[in-house]
Amino acid sequence: MPAPQTVRISLGERSYDIAIGGGLLADPACWRGLPAASAALVVSNTTVAPLYAARLRAALAPHYKQVHEVVLPDGEEHKDWPTLNLIFDQLLAKGCDRKTVLFALGGGVVGDMTGFAAASYMRGVPFVQVPTTLLAQVDSSVGGKTAINHPQGKNMIGAFYQPARVLCDLDTLKTLPPRELSAGLAEVIKYGPIHDLAFLDWIEANIDALLAREPAALAHVVKRSCEIKAEVVGQDERESGLRAILNFGHTFGHAIEAGLGYGEWLHGEAVGCGMVMALQLSLRLGLVDEAFAQRVTALIARAKLPTAGPALGAERYLELMRVDKKAEGGEIRFVVIDGPGRAAVRPAPDAVVRQVLADCTR
Amino acid sequence: MPAPQTVRISLGERSYDIAIGGGLLADPACWRGLPAASAALVVSNTTVAPLYAARLRAALAPHYKQVHEVVLPDGEEHKDWPTLNLIFDQLLAKGCDRKTVLFALGGGVVGDMTGFAAASYMRGVPFVQVPTTLLAQVDSSVGGKTAINHPQGKNMIGAFYQPARVLCDLDTLKTLPPRELSAGLAEVIKYGPIHDLAFLDWIEANIDALLAREPAALAHVVKRSCEIKAEVVGQDERESGLRAILNFGHTFGHAIEAGLGYGEWLHGEAVGCGMVMALQLSLRLGLVDEAFAQRVTALIARAKLPTAGPALGAERYLELMRVDKKAEGGEIRFVVIDGPGRAAVRPAPDAVVRQVLADCTR
């Protein structure tokens, strides 16, 4: 087995490595040098725990006297306080102290909740991301954004809190349902139009290989996605500027998720459709041409992602988007494509947004 | 009216000033230079809001287009998630963006919850402490510890998150119930045995003036307490070492609060009694002499604080203290007086702790 590849997130004393490779859960070398403690808590969900929790616990056993576990219900609709509290309940029931290391074993929901629990338990304990979905491996496990949802807005309650390490075992992608694979590809495709046209070319050329889960193709997209994310987050950890471009498609996407009720669409599905809307907005604002918008939209469709949003009504979309975290003084700010390979954040007239919504929902 | 005095908390880019004086709520000069935003949210409780919220809102009106308000139920028993969520509900109902400034108007509970809400709302918005109790002015509003309680442990869920400013209007102490005044004096007395024997002398000489709320005496204790806290927190913001000494009396005290049910005793009352227990422990460990332990205990009694704890049973005390945030690997670590004016953090044999509890409860 080839040695895992490493991508470094450079954030001063909060820097850490992302290890990417096949078989990491079974490779003892990957589990050395983690934060020292007497106890670890594996946080997973009802879908992932039966598949991988035993392997992770075995990997941790040589390093922690006690390895506890808590299994959360699966799904975005459970990314809320009562579910988060299950983690705190378990930590306190097991008498876990403030050196205890949390391990997030699962997708974006598990990672976001474990990270926020780690940020908040006793005002901060270390945590490690062990993402098992493509979406988590290419995006959500990296960069320290943690949160839970509020009924009125996605990821409204959370913290910037960096993990001590990220371990992406590519083998876990073998068990991923096809819908989840496509959802992950949404966040992969995202990096092209906002930052890296060569990567966009590569994804177009390899989309069938990715859908067929060819290991070399998956290894490349995880590594390249993490590299781009590392570059952006390294420049703007707390999203005072540049980092917002990573939210391409997310303003519309979060509105879809909240409007339909969390868990109805997968986050990546909403982002895929949200990118189509953001491309149409960019087009109507005269920032990209029709050909580029069509090109990226076609790729999103090839990834088996939805390209039309639910008919929530334009007013409901606008209402939901006004509580987006990028909004300022009640004005929605959109991530738009400002020429191929470059993103910008700007407001847009409501009338134009309504046109986009009319075109892109059904 | 004399100009307010200022104590600086030096924490690099997170540094801020504490303003201390009479009439600050009515002095426009004190409310300039706060973080800029279109909206502010005043967080208070049912006791304090009727007394001071209108004044604070008037002070903020020239600086924020919108000044919203949320009034929480009063008391330590409400320092929990459902109450915290009232703050998030109001922020989202009013469409507050991530520049919104939160103002904590009240005592330690309001300050701790507002701070944690500010740390978590959209992953962090600025906040300002406007403490209206002696306890909050001398201790809890300064230093960035924020938290809510978990049924199994005090302040278990929170963040280190510094305010942008602290404004201590000494006039608000005029309306403080006597029990709350005594509770605040517990945190004042604390600074003597752990750090400053000259201050201990001063408190002993002026305890009657403090109980009579003489303005000059209150001004001195607030300023000197903040200076000591600034010195300690400036050296150890996240409690990796030194800062733990500020928890003198708190390990026993938190057990009393959790054991009786939050809100039964005031936090300061539990700390007062907890200091008596910690002094007895220090004595039994041979770290201080009987005379010093008696001297501080007598001062705690003169401040009208309890010096004997509730009879929860030694095993229940030990169980509750094992989840204390200073505990490591199941071993309780106590702040003890290691000679007059100097504190240390160390474990103690259960048998000795049981003797202390037998002596100090009834």
Description:
The structure is a homodimer of 362-residue chains. The first copy, chain A, is an alpha/beta fold and 362 residues long. Chain A folds into 2 domains: 5-175, Rossmann fold (3-Layer(aba) Sandwich), CATH 3.40.50.1970; 178-360, Dehydroquinate synthase-like - alpha domain (Dehydroquinate synthase-like, alpha domain). Chain A has helices at 49-60, 81-93, 108-120, 134-140, 178-195, 197-211, 215-235, 250-260, 267-284, 290-302, 314-321, 350-360; strands at residues 5-9, 16-21, 39-45, 66-72, 101-106, 127-131, 145-150, 153-160, 165-169, 334-337, 343-346. In chain A, strands 1-2-9-6-5-3-4 form a 7-stranded mixed β-sheet, sandwiched between helices. In chain A, helix 4 (134-140) runs parallel beside helix 7 (215-235), helix 5 (178-195) runs antiparallel to helix 6 (197-211) and helix 9 runs antiparallel to helix 10 (290-302). The radius of gyration of chain A is 20 Å and the shape is globular. Chains A and B meet through helix 2, strand 7 and strand 8 of A and helix 2, strand 7 and strand 8 of B.
Measured by DSSP, the beta-strand proportion of chain A falls in: 15-25%
Shape of chain A: globular
Q: Low-confidence runs of chain A (pLDDT<50, min 5 residues)?
A: none
CATH class of the largest domain in chain A: Mainly Alpha
By CATH, the superfamily of the largest domain in chain A comes out as Dehydroquinate synthase-like - alpha domain
Order of helices and strands of chain A: EEEHEHEHEHEEEHHHHHHHEEH
Structural class of chain A: alpha/beta
CATH architecture of the largest domain in chain A: Up-down Bundle
Q: In angstroms, what separates the terminal alpha carbons of chain A?
A: 48 Å
Largest interface: A-B, 37 and 36 residues
